[in-house]
Amino acid sequence: MKTGVNLMKKMMMIVSAGLMSTTLLVGCQNASPESKRIGSAAIGGGAGGAVGKHVGGNIGAGLGAALGAGVAANAKGSNSKTVRNSAIGAGVGAVLGGAIIGGDTGAAAGGALGGSAGAAYEEKKGKY
Length: 128
Prior knowledge:
This protein folds into two domains: about 1-30; about 30-125, no CATH class. It is mostly helical. About 45% of the residues are buried. About 90% of the residues lie in helices and about 0% in strands. The chain has four helices and no strands. It has helices at about 1-25, 35-75, 80-100, 105-125. The chain starts with a helix and ends with a helix. The mean pLDDT is about 80.
């Protein structure tokens, strides 16, 4: 009986993650290039944080989030300062999220928030 409940939880998590990511990506069609770079840093930081936390604990979460955010921001054509800031923000956010909230979910949320904050800081600097 317990296996069925665990399977159902995993299926619901997979379906909700797929639905949410599809919804987010549909809105990216009309986004500005800087918003796309910020969003890609958030997605990379979240994914890297979750995988890293699962594989290597809090240190793995920090490294995975930093790598994920940096690669994702770089893939969207960010400059080196944006890549660096998103990687640092995602790494710190994933470690804090994994420690405070706990688990892969906390690391993913922290990595996404940190990655987007680091990228937004550099992308928006001097524009307002």
